[in-house]
Amino acid sequence: MTKYVIKRVIAAILTLWALVTIVFFLSRLMPGEPFTNPKLTPQVIENMNKYYGFDKPLIVQYFQYMGNLLHGNFGYSMKYTNKTVNYIIGQTFPFSADLGIRALTLAISFGLVLGILAARKRGTKIDFFCVLIAIIGTSIPDFIMGALLQYFFGIKWGLLPVALYKGFKYTILPATALAFYTLASVSRIMRASMLEVTSQDYIKTARSKGLSEARITIRHQIRNAIMPVMTILGPTVAAVLTGTFVIEAIFAIPGMGKYYVESVNNNDYSMILGMTMFYGIFLVTANLIVDILYGVADPRVRIGKK
Amino acid sequence: MDNLSKDMFVIKGKSIEKMESISRPSLSFWQDAWRRLRKNRAAFVGLCIIIFYVILAIFAPMLSKYGFSTMDAANQHAAPSLQHWFGTDATGRDQWVRTWMGARVSLSIGLFSATINMCVGAVLGGLCGFYGGKLDMIMMRIVDILYGIPSLIITILVMMVLGKGVAPLIVAMCVVGWIGTCRFVRGEVYRLKEQDFVMAAKVLGVSDFVIIVKHIIPNIVGMLVTNLCMAIPGAIFQEAFLSYIGLGIAPPRCSWGILAKEGIAYLRVHPHEVAIPAAIICTTMLALNLLGDGLRDAVDPKLRGTE
Amino acid sequence: MKKRLLALAMVVAMIVATLAACSTPGSDSGSGEGEKVFKYATNTEPTTFDLTKGNSIGDNEIQHAISEGLTRNTGGNVTPGLAESWDISEDGCVYTFHLRDANWSDGVPIKAQDFVYSWQRLVDPEVSSPYAWYLDTIAVKNAAAVNAGEMDPSELGIKAIDDKTLEVTLDYPMTVLLSALGMQTNLNPLRQDIVEKYGAEFAATADKNVYSGPFVLTSTENNLYVFEKNPEFWDADNIKLDRVELNYIEKADTALAMYENGELDYVRLDNAVVENYKDRDDYGIYLNGNVDYCYINPNSENKVWANKNFRLALNYALNRTEYNQLANAGMYNPYNALCFPGLSGKDGKTYGETYDVNSYAYPMDGDVAKAKEYLDAAMKELGISDPSQIEIEFVTTDAESNKKIAEVLQEQWQNALGIKVNIRQVTYADIYGQVYPTFDYEIGYAGWGPDYDDPTTYLNLFRSDVNWYTPYGNPDFDAKLDAAQKETGDANKRMDLLNEAEQILIEDGAWVPLQARNQSYLLSPKMKDVTFYSFSINIDWAYADVAE
To answer: Is the minimum CB–CB distance between B247 and chain C shorter than 8 Å?
Structure first.
């Protein structure tokens, strides 16, 4: 196991290097320039290109960037002058992470409960109710879900704050809106996966041993059924923690999501790379943890073994 | 016992033919699945809704007297009425026609990109999971990298090379869309390949190919179908997001996602403009999910033969 | 079953309790009793607080509150700022400013050298300010040469005679100089020692800066910008507000909801929702100075664009009233000329009042018959027999509102002229980074906000030696502008020359005018003396007050 983890960590570093390199060159291929203010004159653009070193050959720029990166320095944003990418991430990440953790807690706990209930009570009203929630969750996009929650709970009934992020009651609506999609997919996958394992021999064995239904569900079914859920959660965790553009915009939360999308739209190269790198670290770590957990959930599984 | 005498019995002879014949017709895996699907009422309703929508998408724009881009300054934001069944939008365009014009784009993007993604992902994920080792290690790192590249960059570049339209959009969505399924299938295969029936097949000397096709795929088809049903709305909304930032289909063409996006701005003033596309999308998803559940049950080998 | 429900309820309660117990990163800022506070929202995030690098109306509005120029321009009313008085040389090219005794927010006196440093920094190519071109547009001597790296910054036309006297030299007389000094905050003073102390981090946060204006910035964290009254400000006695909070809120809907909950005192309204609010007392509207139009590229590979009759056909085919109704919910002003009608014109009247644009510009409701005549003439010249053979490409950015505008124009042109119009949507970075600079377009939607209160801010874009946005050029047009620049004595005659230049553009079909933009807003009735302006500043609350 230790050997496997060490191997994976080395691979993770190589992966991140490849990611940064690919995104570095891909972002330069994108049409447009990073200086997009309609008022910039050709002379000003020339000066700005020199200032940011874009007049140098691309390969020189690449090595400069990698050099800075090794010191943990993501460079300066081109749009938000005088602010480093590190500073912007440091300012915005706590909000995104806080919102993300709340949403994930809601999504995973309720998603699992609904999925398990639906599978246990297959074909009943409870099952139908769970399917309905899942369909609403997946087929209403976040921009409508967020706007509806805000409109009804915030404006129409005045129960919760409309926007901003200043305390527990501010977190309820955005966390719910953000949780919905993940909740729906977790419950759907959990239900399908539970049904998958229900007819396995070891369940029959357990039942014939005379174990109680609750014990069978908890000890045997859930543990075996949870693997597919973990698979989808890997990238989801990374994505949700590093900010979601739409929900943060609707509820005016000062998170990272906006910068991630905006940087690509503005060709803000250093911001794109910084955001990608930050997200990449989360992604690689999350996937590593999921792979290790596979073995924990089902001792027969040995990832990496032929 | 004493009353039984030998002459009460007659030897009728044995017929090899009869011994070997199968009383019920033999059903292949897929025949059995189709038989079970037809019996599932909810799934059938789902299938009907989808067929109904497809028919409307093909014929409704042709049969309406309104063009999908014809504007009408006298009829901005009209509520649904006999003239305009779904009302009109901000520029007085008929929403009924636009909804079904949009269905053409959304349904084709949703179905094609989700299906392609699923197939590619299932094959690659299956290989990774089954063979593991170096292949898996390398593939999964590629997957990590692809996941890490902002999808917007990829879409912008694909559009730059291929131009605009439905087909380039599908391509752009497929470049990275398959990796979710890939990771998912890989995890499932890892789990399945250690199970007894695979072990048994291996011991009997069955080839890898047959094991994958006969033993592993039928066991994950159910999960794949569930995944597919959730991927379709995902694709529809991704298209809407891309259109929103100018990377989707060229105006004045539209899609469900675009209609919903345009409508949400008027949530407080003209709620029908967002409610109708949202309702259509929801019912489509409901239908797809019902159908998907039916399919899942139909192809589940463990439910085979049970009614 | 009951047991299970109970267990479920307990799980739910536990999760909620856990989430509730964790504190969120932001914290609520309390406000003191009896303070006069103004809270409002913006939908464009400020990009910098370094005044040299400010590059948008949003940046400029903030600097206008935290820094002070030689003059102060409050909604067009120009009053002395840090300059107590000034003398203008006879040829109108040399301005001598006499500074008053005033201090920075840290108590250090403001000197003439602070202005010199600021202006030199603005044009220094090494600093690469996005607004470096501004000094050249207001004719400051050697500004262009310094910015191009051909001259040392010390040769710029600004000199400190002593600590309290400043001399500015212009290339040619600039009647709007005093008004520009009061609103364009890139021209306000900077403290060299502070800038050098923080280096690249200067103004990155509120405490890494000093302030010369009526307010100081105390926080820029988490999309909330807090301003507090600057006791060192020379006119602090007349500043009424104690604190101002600016929230960056991207969605207009969200800001509106907060306004309705009483959390904000001012919000901008989206055109989509105006119909629900326009009869309310707190509703208002102002011209924000933006004039939107389509640039035309006469050098395009598509030969039709070089044809004047074709360009006129497009202009006459457009029903601008209906266009505005469809594309902008009728909220903007359809417009058929180039120069913003709110500019100063002759004898204290606005440009729009001085000249009757409708007498010489394209008809507001369009004239399809005349458009067809022009189209027929164009087709004859181009050797085209059927209008459906003409295919043009319209380029625009990806914003939702721009898409609607493109769709309406497409529909109108296709219906009126029978030509084919394709829409090409590109990203913001693409259109301003590549499409316009390299003239990679046929016709494109854009607009211009005025940089100062004079028609030349629009007209200069179309000069033949300015290859910016459009390669259009016409020697007659250039001649009129040159004549206007030389006309130093008679301001009215100068204005007439500029107006004649605008008419040449109209006769040439040099571009396709569309609208002069309005901005609707809601402003709490308790607010007094909030000023709206069309030039570089939209909302000005420096001298605002809260009614008791």
So the answer is: yes
The answer to whether residue B244 neighbours chain C at the CB level (below 8 Å) is yes
Decide: helix, strand or coil at residue C321: helix
Mark yes or no for CB contact C253/B267 under 8 Å: yes
Minimal C-alpha gap between B71 and chain A (Å): 26
Neighbours of chain B (3+ CB pairs under 8 A): A, C
Strands (E), C280-412: 283-296, 333-334, 391-397
* C-alpha torsion angle, residues C522, C526, C529, C532 (rounded to 10): -10
CB B128 within 8 A of CB B150: no
In this predicted structure, what is the pLDDT of residue B37?
Answer: 76
SS3 state at C540:
strand
- Whether the CB-CB separation of C530 and C266 falls below 8 Å is answered with yes
Write out chain A residues lying below 8 Å of C15, CB-based.
105-106, 109
Q: Which of A144, A184, A279 sits opposite B274 (nearest CB)?
A: A144
Q: What is the average pLDDT value for chain A, to the nearest integer?
A: 86
Calculate the CA C275 to chain-centre distance.
26
Residues shown for chain C: 548
Please give the DSSP secondary-structure letter assigned to residue C124: -
Query: Is C207 part of the contact surface with chain A (CB cutoff 8 Å)?
Result: no
Residue of B226 and A9 predicted with greater confidence: A9
- Considering CB atoms only, which of A16, A141, A227 is closest to B187? A227
Query: What is the value of pTM for the model shown?
Result: 0.86
Nearest to B49 by CA among B280, B237, B297: B280
Could you tell me where the DSSP H helices lie in C383-461? 400-417, 428-430, 456-459
CB contact under 8 A, B267 and C322: no
Most C CBs within 10 Å, among A162, A258, A262, A268, to test the C interface: A162
- Residue the block writes with tokens 């300015």: C466
Q: Is C423 within 8 Å of chain B by CB?
A: yes
Tell me if the bond preceding A174 is cis, omega within 30° of 0. no
The per-residue pLDDT for range C66-125, each reduced to its tens digit, is: 999 999 999 989 999 999 999 999 888 999 999 999 999 999 999 999 999 999 999 999
User: CA-to-CA distance for B248 and C425, rounded, in angstroms?
Assistant: 9
Short-list C264, C212, C268, CA closest to C44? C268
Residue A195 tokens, joined = 């049904």
Measured from the Cβ of residue A235, the count of other Cβ atoms closer than 10 Å reads 21
Nearest one of A216, A229, A206, A201 to A290, comparing CA atoms: A229
Subunits close to A (at least 3 CB pairs below 8 A): B, C
What is the rounded CA–CA span in Å between residue B277 and residue B261? 9
Helices (H), chain B: 16-20, 29-39, 41-63, 95-131, 133-148, 151-162, 166-192, 196-203, 208-210, 217-244, 256-264, 272-299
Question: Distance between CA atoms of A235 and C528, rounded to whole angstroms?
Answer: 52
* Separation in Å, CA of B85 to nearest CA in chain A: 23
CA angle (C330, C332, C333) in 5-degree steps: 105
Q: Which residues from chain A sit within 8 angstroms of residue C426, using beta carbons?
A: 31-32
Whole-Å CA distances, A80 to A30, A88, B199, C48, C55: 20, 9, 59, 6, 11
Q: From its phi and psi, is residue C348 left (phi > 0), alpha (psi between -120 and 50) or beta?
A: left
Tens of pLDDT, residue by residue over C155-179, are 999 999 999 999 999 998 888 899 9
Structure confidence by residue, pLDDT tens digits, B16-64:
776 666 666 666 767 777 777 777 888 888 889 999 999 999 998 888 8
pLDDT score recorded for residue A306: 44
CB contact under 8 A, C326 and B246: no
